[in-house]
């Protein structure tokens, strides 16, 4: 029992650390409002990287899916992307390009692209051929088909890819302090400045952030699902699955 | 008690190619001379990966078999494993520290937790994709539920199951590079030890990528060997 | 033979007894529904006969069939296999004694053709040798070349081949009874016809008791020894041999279901050889006209039929052809249509209508006249006792 209380106590301390902070023996104030700054930096890094990744991956995925070509590229990207450990990726960037916000962002962009690209590609190429054919028969241009037919139908799966990437980027941004960016990973990696409680607190915040993102983007995903597709969603969710080169996480 | 991470700098910098090493460059001769120092971390990495995969697979398989019979469990299991999948492993290592302490155990728990959803979902998809008429025919021929499961459903789900295992394998190799934060060593520890030294980063990172690719190829080979009918279809 | 194991003859296995099947007030009510899917169904299928369950979709025919091997549990009443309730068996044991073939076939994609056929024999623990021989025998039985198909996967077969493998698999352990649910439903019309004929020939050889489900009345008439017409609500509308069903529909529903062309369908069940033909008043060139007239007067056919020396028909004699003293070939009218013994009555009628004649000479396989078919005989044929009309496997053409 006492062991359990001790463990609970450590988590309780961590929660207090997040909201109130504490003063170290050296007289420095750690935790509390400091966590706001770390979280802000963490999110800034995440959103910039995600913004760039989406701007690159979504159009390419849409186009590849529309012409139904390049499945090899779309699938290889995701296979390779998964095989490179995020720590190794950050380390490559630090070793070859040095530290700094831009370099870390670039590494995270590379990390974020594969799931978005693959999901977008799969989503668009899975749109029923007959539906696309009917649109063409009605006189729609390629751009109109992409915007009015393929994109709405693909949107849920695209957001699934964005969700996967974003959770992954949030997790990986935790090791950004290795490249000199003070995210929520700072208390974890530079443990001497914060102590064990600070590190546990940071881990809790990162975990909460990831779960929150998952839930929020899941809600967005449901919101952007066309009503007609929701009716089919029971069968559709069975069709979506993990597969090498086929992200399709929902 | 503050646990300092192993900030070991790479020793033996005074190799033949002194200037390359001093510049943190990519020095093939240094790599050749110092390759031995990567063997143990690599083996530890392999150990973490394989043990985690084996446990993750066993748990997922058991969950899938239970959920296959009791469909209402699919939702709750997916949600719970989904949260475990969402939690960043790095965070989980530290969330577990107060409970399980530092070491392999903590790392393996976190890696297993992450792999559950991937494997579970693929097994379920594989089982769900077995054509209804095939099951009907099997039952009509007098196969019991257990015979149907082991002789028809699982063999037919094998491509999906092994596909899930491939994804789980490559992801686990990647996440195991962070296992040193839980005090379980591995190639990540080597990367972290001198992140500015290109030779070191390339060797340790490259070994991790290579390990992921090897496992992927191995499971793919198993999949090819055990599912000859899948190729007959495309032929 | 010094092997201690009893030797299994590789040749055809001894003919097993087929079972009788009896539905006794069998009823199925699905949970949550008030209307029964099958409502007090009672019928008996004699051993070795093919019973077709036919009816519109939702009439409960498939449910009725699936109750036999307990894929669906009986709510009320019973089904007896050789007098023994199917409820007495463990489901898996029961099913292993009953062949099962469905429209989607349901071959196991991961097993070879041989592996598919061997499924139940393996469950029953047959020896490898025995299984091998049986697979070979069955593939030949269903018209597949064992060497070429044994090791293929289902994905490498055509639709017709898959269907044959499905039938072979259902026959693997010489079941007492076969259940077939629209087995030819997914096959194109031309191949379906071929498979139906092949299956009827096979059935003539194996004489299994078969429950055959279809929604196609033509298929039912063609395949069935007995046909059970079912209507919505799972009620049996009529249970009768094909000819009886066509000539004496029990009610308006059956009448509509068999269609307004039921008389023609009925004629399709009989062949020229099955009816009593009229004796032809045959004459040859050079015979006295008086004799020819007398022969015609003696016969039901009003005109003499001129034949050559071999007895092959040349033409009908009438009017000016009978004016002279001796029979002359000059004024004969054509003898078309010339009908054959194996022709189906419906086709014979169509040919006669086409030629606008009342009579058609019938020739044997050497082309010699052996009788005359008339519209009158066809009218009679429609009135013959339905029990006398051949059906199912017996109706199939003897020559290939």
What does this molecule look like?
The complex is a heterotrimer of chains A (250), B (235) and C (400). Chain A has 250 residues and is mainly α. In chain A, strands 1-2 form a two-stranded antiparallel sheet. The radius of gyration of chain A is 21 Å and the shape is elongated. Chain A starts with a helix and ends in an 11-residue tail after the last helix. With 235 residues, chain B is mainly α. Chain B is elongated, with a radius of gyration of 22 Å. Chain C is of the alpha/beta class and 400 residues long. Chains in contact: A-B, B-C.
Q: Roughly how many Å apart are the termini of chain C? A: 40 Å
Assign an overall shape of chain A.
elongated
Q: Mind telling me the C-alpha Rg of chain A?
A: 21 Å
Spans of chain C of 5+ residues with little confidence (pLDDT < 50)?
1-15
Task: Tell me the strand percentage band of chain A.
Answer: under 5%
Question: Strand pairing plus helix content of chain A: what structural class?
Answer: mainly alpha
H/I helix tally of chain A: 10
Tell me the greatest interface.
Answer: A-B, 46 and 58 residues
The main sheet of chain C orders its strands as 6-7-8-3-9-10
Oligomeric state, counting identical vs distinct chains: heterotrimer
What composes the largest sheet of chain C?
6 strands, mixed
In helices, the fraction of residues of chain C equals 25-40%
The portion of residues forming beta strands of chain C comes to 15-25%
Largest sheet of chain A: 2 strands, antiparallel
Shape of chain C: elongated
Number of β-strand runs of chain A = 2
* Order of neighbouring strands in the sheet with most strands of chain A: 1-2
In DSSP terms (H or I, runs of 4 or more residues), the helix count of chain C works out at: 15
What is the structural class of chain C? Answer: alpha/beta
